[in-house]
Specification:
Blueprint lengths: L10 H14 L3 H12 L10 H9 L4 H11 L12
Amino acid sequence: MKSLTLHALDDQLAAQIKRRADELAISMNELAKRLLAEALGLKVPASPPHREAFSSFCGTWTDDDVRAFDERVADMEKVDAEDWK
């Protein structure tokens, strides 16, 4: 695969690219590739959402899982002043 570096993007263009990439939850690089492909009339392959790409390795937590975890680690949030003397 080839790489392309864009130089001297004005602030407004860079901000718009960043804003659109953030809205789509993709990288600025991914957005640039999509925009270039669309502008050239190429079919843009749909990429899976980032979470789905790793879910088979990581899984997800339910709200109950998060609450149970937070309850179990709550003591770790406390600072014992005696330990710092």
